[in-house]
Amino acid sequence: AAPAGAATGALEAPAAAGQANGTAGSESEWPWQCPVVHTQQGFNLSAYMGTWYIQMQAPTAYLPESANNCVSATYRMLSPPTFPWRYTVGIRNLAYENDGTVRDSGDFLAAYQRGLFDPAKLAVAPKFLPKFFAGDYWVIAFNEDEGYALVSGGQPYIKTDKGCKTGEGVNNAGLWIFTRKQQRDDIIVYKVRNIAFEAGFDINVLNNVNQTGCPAIP
């Protein structure tokens, strides 16, 4: 669960590091049964900055299916980095519950590039926490020209009969389809779903996000 008093939104990595360990049916938590996921080659972090609209996402502890409305994530480079932990990306996540309740992370979250030789491997945490507590945030695919990104909460480690998935807890959790445009484009969404499928993800974990009738990002 998110830390007490924290406003939560998509792609958070709060203090309580951990994994969702619940499995069902034919699922098994043997990571070696899952193919190694590769991230976007030649990833350009600066180009990735700005606002993204989530079109599909897997449930997590901090963003259940009831909050699949008007979900967005906005990123900005931090110069200088935060003190003392030197996070380099500021994050603001926004989502709405079915009853209209707002989930807004404000300026609570930050990220840094964890992969020295893999710039698409980032990690996210509340900016006041040491990097040890940060949760994986991997950009599996990113195309600025076509306006899409596929993001995973790290390496999937739960084998299902449809592929592999991350957990549903806080860290090591989540799968998201981002688009630059808020209006859904089913062709792009289908393309990114297929990228996830080809990478070995169980895409059945993805649920649609309603992006219609949304208020402007305040």
TrEMBL record:
Residues 1-26 are annotated as: Disordered. Coiled coil: none annotated. GO terms for biological process: lipid metabolic process; response to reactive oxygen species. Residues 1-25 have a biased composition (Low complexity). Gene3D superfamilies: 2.40.128.20. GO terms for cellular component: cytoplasm. PANTHER family: APOLIPOPROTEIN D. This is Lipocalin/cytosolic fatty-acid binding domain-containing protein. It comes from Zooxanthella nutricula.
